[in-house]
Amino acid sequence: MAKEEMKIIQVTDVIERIKDVISKDYPNSKVFDKNVAYELRTSPGALAVQKSRNLISYDALTMFCIRRKVNTNWLFFGIGDMEMDHAKKDL
Predict the structure, then answer these.
(1) Which of 6, 26, 36, 38 is the most exposed place for a label (fewest CB within 10 A)?
(2) What is the DSSP letter of 83?
(3) Can you list the alpha helix ranges (DSSP code H) found in the chain?
């Protein structure tokens, strides 16, 4: 029986998805890693180290998802819609 191949999450992909989410806050300008660091409540230097090690705080990512109503499956894997399902419903 063949083992399923596990896909490693690339921090650079996650950071690019975060940039997609926050880009509406920066109209007509480029979103930088320092903007992502701010959103994740960390310093640009700490984010650069995490990026170089392909490691990022799941706590920070989870809190970002909660604050911004972002679907974690989309953020981590690029699967599904950007918004959480309950964020789409009219209350």
Answers:
(1) 6
(2) B
(3) 11-22, 33-39, 44-53, 58-68, 72-77, 85-88
